[in-house]
Amino acid sequence: MSSNEPLIKDCGTLYIVGTPIGNLKDVSFRVLRTLKEVDLIAAEDTRHTRKLLSHYDIHTPLTSFYEYNQEKKAPYLIKKIREGANIALVSKAGMPGISDPGYHLIKKAVEADIQIIPVPGPCALVVALVASGLPADRFVFEGFLGRTRKERINKLKTLSEEKRTIVIYESPHRILKILPEIKQTLGDRRIALARELTKKFEEIMRGRVSDVEKIFDQKKPQKPRGEFTLIIEGAK
Ligand code: SAM
What we know:
CATH superfamily of the largest domain: Tetrapyrrole methylase, C-terminal domain
Bound molecules: S-adenosylmethionine
CATH class of the largest domain: Alpha Beta
Strand order of the largest sheet: 3-2-4-1-5
Largest sheet: 5 strands, parallel
Strand content: 15-25%
Shape: elongated
Structural class: alpha/beta
Helix content: 25-40%
């Protein structure tokens, strides 16, 4: 059996489709073709995905699949695939499953012996890492560190001996809090803070934590805006 044949006869396929992290042109021919040819697209944010689809004149039906309906919706999507539907899973940005709800459906599809075909696209952590100038041959990805200071400090403490480059996702309203927390737990290490990658206001701030803090100081009273990915050098 070739790897592209369905595992269950007459069963559909779940395509895990990577979509742009900002720039709508960062999309492959294969991604567009998959989105055009599947029966249904399960999207984390249907309004957001609709913009991508209308940009490329794609009219495939959309259904929502996000954090708060994933438990209820996954069995319905699995049933549809088992009945023969081909479904594409997309998230708001990047690769589904990386710090977004995709994982739940992928796990259920694996358990149901459903054929899964990944159709790769950009992923913010990889894009930020390669542009950081910090070693990218070995790294750890920690996702979001947490909402409370206690959660973040505890996670950072567990990373204090980590020798590999550390990659973190952070929201704009927590970025000014996390910089002093990093200095306190890991020291004034070299970092790269990538903002709005692939978008109009793309910016990559490099230097020690204190240098990046100064950049934000100079921008005051403007608050940090946009999407941030933080790369931290590993322990010496
Ligand atoms: N699945 C996505 C991926 O493959 O990159 C990540 C989803 S996660 C919910 C969203 C986080 O990714 C943001 O809070 C930010 O930390 C990071 N991110 C997404 N787009 C970005 C961009 N254009 N520039 C910098 N970071 C970005």
